[in-house]
Specification:
single chain; alpha/beta; TIM Barrel; binds flavin-adenine dinucleotide
């Protein structure tokens, strides 16, 4: 962790909430659903489909998980009412995975069934490695009954190629990511290049088995290799898309869009935004480094080189 990053991390919890809200406005749509919908409408006007995420994780108990599930159902309804090309994306521990796996499965099932009725999709997100097995079990059970669900796989984890091979045959939608959780070197790549290479290899394996792959990254060097991969395989936009986080490297999205690729934007919101953001920054200070560079106008714009 750099000195500046360490100093900023120490100060952040003491910064007044309204100041933090202004600082995070670029990355977080707001506290409530209407603000997130407004962002999605603006993104639609700019040609970007969306993803809706309610910030939060690690609920305290079953009642809280059920409340989160109701919020997600309401959010999905709002997307359908506005005919937005957008879907919902849920962290397993926000649906109570650590309370009980069967609770998380039940809530994902309810949401998937509800979303099927209103023509929406549900993404099961991936959290740190202690949850990977349970998340994949929940996803595979869910997928056996619902075709409007997808999963996330992390290229930094050594296990991901085996996980890809073990996924049951049939239609499959995967968001490939590097993985936001800093994992121990015994189980994960820690250097940038092996993480990139594993991202490309995993994406190739998924495309070969007919999966629809969402490349979730803001790494332009990786993006170039993924574009070469889809061109080499003659893939059209129904087989893949790019996904990006709200506020992160917009000029890069524009260059991908201009090149004919779909770029879907992840829009997080919710009353938990402050606690959640502080927790994430503390667990992965690299993110804060990115945010500081972006604030100083040194985030590389369209291209990092
Ligand atoms: P990096 O090398 O980390 O970043 C490339 C460049 O992008 C950086 O140099 C910086 O300029 C910029 N940048 C990247 N991140 C940020 C940021 N937060 N703020 C400001 N600038 C930034 N991870 C999971 O583990 N599970 C998930 O379910 C998951 N879902 C995701 C969904 C979407 C749509 C996206 C885009 C990411 C998701 N991630 C998830 C996070 C992902 O794993 C990476 O941690 C994140 O995308 C950063 O990696 P990168 O590929 O952009 O490359």
């Amino acid at each position: 962790m750099g000195l500046l990053t360490g100093a900023v991390l120490a100060v952040l919890p003491h910064v007044p909430r309204p100041v933090m809200r202004r600082l995070s406005a670029r990355y977080i749509a707001g506290e409530a659903l209407p603000e997130a919908l407004q962002r999605l409408e603006s993104l639609r006007a700019a040609g970007h489909p969306g993803i809706l995420d309610i910030l939060g994780e690690e609920v305290d108990g079953e009642a809280e998980a059920r409340e989160v599930a109701r919020d997600y159902a309401r959010a999905a309804d709002a997307l359908a009412e506005r005919s937005l090309d957008a879907y919902v994306s849920v962290k397993p521990t926000h649906f109570g995975l650590r309370v009980s796996e069967s609770l998380a499965l039940e809530l994902y099932r309810q949401l998937a069934a509800h979303c099927a009725r209103i023509g929406r999709f549900v993404r099961v997100e991936m959290e740190d490695h202690t949850t990977t097995d349970a998340t994949l079990r929940v996803f595979e059970t869910l997928r056996a009954d619902h075709d409007n669900v997808g999963i996330v796989l992390q290229s930094r984890l050594f296990r991901t190629p085996q996980d890809i091979a073990r996924l049951a045959p049939g239609p499959l939608s995967v968001r490939m990511v590097k993985g936001i959780y800093l994992e121990p070197p015994e189980i994960a790549h820690v250097e940038p290049e092996p993480i990139r290479q594993a991202f490309v290899d995993g994406s190739r394996a998924l495309l070969e088995r007919g999966a629809r792959v969402s490349f979730a990254t803001h790494d332009d060097r990786l993006g170039d290799r993924l574009i070469a991969l889809v061109r080499e395989r003659g893939m059209r936009s129904e087989h893949y898309e790019f996904q990006v986080l709200l506020g992160v490297r917009e000029p890069l999205w524009a260059s991908w869009r201009a090149d004919g690729h779909v770029v879907r934007v992840y829009v997080p919101y919710g009353p938990e935004w402050l606690a959640y953001s502080l927790r994430r920054l503390k667990k992965n200070p690299q993110i804060l480094g990115h945010v500081i560079r972006a604030a100083l106008g040194r985030d590389g714009g369209a291209r990092s080189r």
